[in-house]
Amino acid sequence: MTKTKTKKSISILGCGWLGLPLAEALVNDGFTVKGSTTTTDKCETLLTKNIQPYVLSIDDEIDGNLDHFLQSEILFINVPFRKQKPFLNAYKTLVKVLEKSTIKHVIFISSTSVYSEINGEVTEDMDIPLNPAKKDLIVFENLFKNNPHFNTTIIRFAGLIGGTRNPGNFFKEDKIVQNALTPVNLIHLEDCIGIVKAIIKQQKWNTTYNAAASTHPTKANYYKLATEQMDKKPAKFIEELSSFKIVSNQKLIDELNYQFIYPDLIEGLKAFKN
Fold first, then answer.
1. Residue 85 predicted with pLDDT over 70
2. Which residues of 59-72 are buried (b: 16+ CB within 10 A; e: fewer)?
3. What would be one Pfam family of this protein (predicted)?
4. What is the pTM of this model?
């Protein structure tokens, strides 16, 4: 008699721009997926995509059936960051519940904005200054990374494009864009999903990855092309160079053997053509 293979299970906290298409991709890969939303209106959408819906809100506390939501093997956390102390308290509550749950692995979505602009390349393992304006985000990372009850991998995403985020819409015609010779650090939605899937498949836990495309065109060049491709007039770009950083993705490429779908940002603009 052949044994039925147990489905892997994942709970996705935040089914928005990234969380929802990720949930769909994992359902297609045979996962049992639980997805959270802050409104009951979205539950029907999740159900139609074979995602088990949970209404959860994170404010000064967590409202909803958190215990049942966390009956999975993996937790994916992708909730817009807020600095307020009540929000931090809610996350501390989440960690306490996590410690007693069946969750073994956590993927926490962070941002490359945690790095200071050092006028050079930033990597995950360099002894480089972190952005003091983002110290609260580091506190959130460490809540999970330093907890011995589960394994945590941090993904620091660069600026997000793809899906509903067309870079041609980022700057209006009357906008004056300063420091337009600085390099951009961006990543496409499809690569965000691909990287998460690679981490899960290869079980790359207890580490941190920068996630950005391999090329870094100037702000002026990239956004002018993106806007003109939409037959719109570009913003006014002040072509000067101020402080900047270039986010390295080399660790991710080396350890995951990940091949980007959109490694070249200029070439990737073709994906946004109507």
1. no
2. eeebeeebeebbeb
3. NAD_binding_2
4. 0.94
The domains located in the chain, with CATH, are 9-163+185-213+246-262 (3.40.50.720)
Q: Which two tokens stand for residue 99?
A: 């410690």
Predicted confidence (pLDDT) per residue in 92-121, tens digit:
999 999 999 999 999 999 999 999 999 999
